[in-house]
Write a structure and sequence with these properties.
The complex is a heterodimer. By secondary structure, chain A is mostly helical. Chain A contains 8 helices and no strands. Classes of the chains: A mainly alpha, B mainly alpha.
């Protein structure tokens, strides 16, 4: 069976699986962005128990493989009675993992906003929350746009790892199809091609929004 | 409680489990080192290709970079291990993994090396030529020694990523740390205990590299400022 013949036969399935991967990536990204921002804000409050706890969180999640994190959340927690579906476990695992990277990106982005901005805002009578929400975060958002884009692309590629806990994604479907058609080379090449067709324009886009030096 | 029962079982099995996991950690380190050697060598060649005067050479290196960094490493491993086996090229799992991580890492490192070389002030090269060095001599003795410290932090981050990514080789049954853990779990059902222990081992392997990266970063900052 040629690549084209095979492609016409399996493309609806792979397209469907790509959508599942995108959903998984978006879910994990949403969790990662929310938790990452909270972690960054907690770290910016300065030294203390919270600072140490968030530091440990970041080191642990960045220092261990995403695969092991998924295994702990999916198999490990199930063994102590906390069960998630593989999709839930994948969103939680990849989201918690992304949060560790995003926290550092947000912290650096917030610190890159000139101090004078928040001093001026305080001087005109805003409180600290208003300063953060209306003055600092909007400017930090522009700074972190490109690095956050890179995390999003990594996240999309990392959804393939979730296939190892049988979460529904492109890579899992590719594994099913390749045992069904016994054409692993062609099917994995097609799967790789699909990832490329999504990730390449995205990384091009990220480079376009990168501030020129 | 089952907790107490599982604890006593864990205590009985602990020496065996730890021995197996430590062997796995050794294999992980060797897999990481071999992949890194391949990635750094090929990455350096690709970085040189990106500096070529000849457009096709630059284009090939650029295409390689985009191709490898926009496809998940797991997909690349599956193509090399399961895919190639289908057409009669059967690589031992460890070889396929080293090849996969090496080829993938070469793309990432080529970009690190290229930008580090570009970050060295042009005047350095011009001055070297002015005192009579050949372009090759200037590149080797003037540019590269200055590009090296600039490349250190990113190369260190890559190395940590690589160490963690080698866990994916467990999907191709390479007997490294994650694979040994999966085998142990299926034998003992001490799921939580074993995976948590494995996480701690990875942490202990990656923290020294992370420390080194931070140290190198602090050292290279004044370097970049001048």
């Amino acid at each position: 069976m040629g690549v084209l013949e095979l492609w016409t036969e399996i493309w609806p399935e792979l397209l469907d699986a790509l959508l599942a991967s995108l959903k998984l990536a978006l879910g994990a990204l949403a969790l990662g962005l929310a938790l990452g921002l909270l972690l960054a804000l907690a770290r910016l409050r300065g030294q203390g128990p919270l600072w140490r706890a968030t530091g440990i969180y970041i080191e642990v999640f960045r220092g261990t493989p995403a695969l092991i994190q998924l295994f702990i959340i999916y198999f490990g927690l199930a063994a102590v009675g906390i069960t998630f579906s593989s999709l839930q476990a994948a969103i939680i695992g990849l989201g918690l993992n992304a949060a560790a990277y995003l926290a550092e990106i947000f912290r650096a982005g917030i610190q890159a906003v000139p101090r004078g901005q928040s001093e001026a805002a305080l001087a005109i009578g805003m409180n600290r929350t208003q300063v953060m929400a209306w003055i600092v975060l909007p400017q930090a958002a522009r700074i972190v746009l490109a690095p956050v884009g890179n995390v999003a692309i990594s996240l999309l590629k990392d959804t393939s790892v979730a296939s190892l806990i049988a979460a529904p994604d492109l890579m899992l479907r590719a594994q099913d199809l390749s045992s069904q058609y016994f054409q692993p080379l062609q099917i994995y090449l097609i799967a790789g091609g699909i990832y490329f067709l999504v990730c390449f324009p995205l990384s091009w886009l990220v480079r376009a929004v990168e501030p020129k030096r | 409680m089952t907790d107490a029962a599982s604890l006593s079982r864990l205590a009985a099995l602990l020496p065996d489990i730890l021995r197996t996991l430590l062997w796995g950690a050794g294999a992980t380190l060797m897999l990481t080192a071999a992949s890194f050697a391949l990635a750094a060598t090929l990455g350096f060649v690709l970085a040189l290709m990106r500096r070529s005067d000849w457009l096709p050479v630059r284009a090939v290196a650029r295409a390689y970079l985009e191709l490898f960094r926009n496809v998940p490493i797991l997909t690349q491993l599956f193509i090399l291990y399961f895919g190639l086996a289908r057409i009669g090229i059967t690589l031992p799992a460890t070889v396929a993994a080293i090849l996969g991580f090496g080829l993938n890492g070469a793309a990432i490192l080529s970009e690190v090396f290229r930008s580090s070389i570009n970050a060295v002030d042009r005047g350095q090269h011009e001055a070297a030529l002015a005192i009579g060095m050949t372009p090759g001599r200037s590149f080797r003795s003037i540019i590269l020694p200055q590009a090296f410290p600039i490349a250190l932090p990113s190369t260190g981050s890559f190395l940590i990523g690589l160490l963690k990514d080698t866990s994916l080789a467990s999907a191709a049954a390479v007997p490294e740390l994650a694979f040994r853990a999966r085998m142990l779990v299926s034998e003992t059902y001490l799921t939580t205990e074993i995976y948590l222990t494995v996480a701690v081992i990875y942490l202990f392997l990656s923290l020294p590299i992370a420390r080194f990266v931070r140290w190198a970063e602090r050292r290279s900052v004044p370097h970049r400022a001048t």
